[in-house]
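From the methods appendix. Each design record in this collection lists the tokenized structure first, followed by the designed amino acid sequence. Records were kept in a plain field format so they could be parsed without special tools. The example shown here is representative of the layout used throughout.

RECORD:
FOLD TOKENS (402 positions):
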């Protein structure tokens, strides 16, 4: 009369109430798993938009600011920038290292004017893996050539070969106006235009607009994005060893869109998870309570034949855990199947060039799923305590008499 075997027997007999409880647990967990997958997919899209579309890179090396220092002290001097480039290029796991300068101002065609946010970049050959994914291509032979997004081109009425006047805006430098020519119009990384699409210009042009010879930051693209924190620590240690006063920031720290989305999605997931766990706890508690009520004669008979109260308690606890494990197993299978069907259906549509490298619509977040499984087992254990305790403390004679 092992409590474990008796609990397994009850589950295998599959009473209607127990089966419905398992299905309800599975459905609730399936919803939670798919919601976690949706959040993971949304963050993967944000990563692609930030790292590739906005050219933030996986890591950015910036000069450590000096308290009370003169304007421009938070930028690398030419000699410092060269040393940073050399250290970053020698760092393991690095795919591409490029200097960049952010510049903003006014772009004017004579007929139209608009504010612009630009990035001064160094042209890289497409033979470098990550360079093939970066939007906007500059012509190294054209020192005045710029690349604009399709949205910017429509706003200013630009086409390939159009001329535009760029005027930089800086608090610490005089305003300069430069003539530029459009050499590339690139599609945005998102069709709705929510991502920032900078105006791309040669690095020397950005320095001229800001009236400086310094470098704002060194952008680092990694081979394996999953090891960003590890590579960040190694790169920072190498810079410190070389005596370079620098800080290393990840793309998450630089992207305002990611910070906003992460806070909102974490709150949403916690709310949904709380509701799911409440449903599971109520389901387990109600099912075990009704099972104990209907089987009070059976429990009394087992007690009369020598089973201890602790054995009855363990039997109902194991029943609850068994229902939870069955629901978890069913939900994992259902979540994987639904995610596969949704992704296959989504990939069958022509999404256009702007989304040709977009991640799948639903990704299974295995880390969150593992935490959910552990949480469900803990919730089940707590929910089963009261019904199991009541069943174990029930009287033998009254139950047999009824």
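DESIGN:
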């Amino acid at each position: 009369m092992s409590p474990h075997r008796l609990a397994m027997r009850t589950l295998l007999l599959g009473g209607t109430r127990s089966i419905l409880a398992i299905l309800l647990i599975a459905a609730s967990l399936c919803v939670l798993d798919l919601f976690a997958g949706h959040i993971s997919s949304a963050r993967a899209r944000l990563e692609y938009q930030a790292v590739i579309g906005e050219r933030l890179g996986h890591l950015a090396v910036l000069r450590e600011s000096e308290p009370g220092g003169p304007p421009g002290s938070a930028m690398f001097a030419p000699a410092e920038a060269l040393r940073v480039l050399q250290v970053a290029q020698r760092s393991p796991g690095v795919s591409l290292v490029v200097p960049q300068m952010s510049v903003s101002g006014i772009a004017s065609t004579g007929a139209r004017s608009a504010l612009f946010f630009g990035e001064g970049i160094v042209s890289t050959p497409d033979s470098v893996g990550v360079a093939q994914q970066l939007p906007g291509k500059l012509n190294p032979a054209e020192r005045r050539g710029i690349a604009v997004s399709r949205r910017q081109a429509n706003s200013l009425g630009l086409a390939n070969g159009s001329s535009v006047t760029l005027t930089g805006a800086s608090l610490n430098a005089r305003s300069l106006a430069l003539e530029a020519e459009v050499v590339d119009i690139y599609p945005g990384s998102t069709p709705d235009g929510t991502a920032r699409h900078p105006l791309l210009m040669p690095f020397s042009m950005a320095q001229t607009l800001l009236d400086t010879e310094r470098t704002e930051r060194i952008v680092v693209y990694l081979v394996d994005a999953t090891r960003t924190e590890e590579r960040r620590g190694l790169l920072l240690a190498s810079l410190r060893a070389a005596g370079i006063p620098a800080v290393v920031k990840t793309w998450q720290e630089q992207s305002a869109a990611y910070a906003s989305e992460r806070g909102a999605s974490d709150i949403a997931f916690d709310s949904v998870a709380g509701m799911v766990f409440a449903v599971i706890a109520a389901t387990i508690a109600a099912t075990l309570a009704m099972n104990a009520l209907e089987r009070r004669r059976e429990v009394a008979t087992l007690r009369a034949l020598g089973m201890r109260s602790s054995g009855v308690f363990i039997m109902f606890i194991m029943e609850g855990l068994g229902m939870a494990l069955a629901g978890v197993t069913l939900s994992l299978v259902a979540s994987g199947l639904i995610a596969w069907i949704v992704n296959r259906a989504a990939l069958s549509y022509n999404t256009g060039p702007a989304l040709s490298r977009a991640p799948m619509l639903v990704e299974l977040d295995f880390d969150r799923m593992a935490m959910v499984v552990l949480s469900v087992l803990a919730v089940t254990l707590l929910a089963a305590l009261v019904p199991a305790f009541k069943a174990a403390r029930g009287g033998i004679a009254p139950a047999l008499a009824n």
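APPENDIX NOTE: Residues 55-254 form one domain.
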